Amino acid sequence: LLKQPQAAPLAVEEQVATIFTGVNGYLDVIEVAQVRRFLAELRHYIVTNKPEFGKIIREKKTFTDEAQAILKQAIQEHTEAFLLQEESGAAAR
Question: Is residue 5 one of the residues assigned to a domain?
Answer without folding.
Answer: no
